[in-house]
Specification:
Blueprint lengths: L1 E3 L5 E4 L8 E5 L4 E6 L6 E6 L5 E5 L3 E3 L3
Antiparallel strand pairs: 1-4, 1-7, 2-3, 4-5, 5-6
Length: 67
């Protein structure tokens, strides 16, 4: 589990890269589950806990909850 820490929120993309189409967005402090995190790419695939929507975001915009 993780939480969005980017105050303006984040754009969810269809794939890893700013050239990929937008598929939605995430709000500040929205809870997400990390699905995939390829090494050395700078992108993370997540699923919103609230909406179930999946997409890619730039890494470094999440705070991991280590419970």
């Amino acid at each position: 589990p993780a939480v969005v820490i980017q105050p303006i929120g984040l754009v969810l993309r269809q794939g890893p890269g700013t050239d990929r189409p937008q598929v939605g967005g995430l709000d500040y402090k929205e809870a997400v589950v990390v699905i995939e995190e390829p090494p050395n790419q700078g992108w993370v695939k997540v699923r919103s806990v609230a909406s179930g929507k999946e997409g890619w975001i730039k890494s470094g915009n999440l705070r991991r909850d280590h419970n």
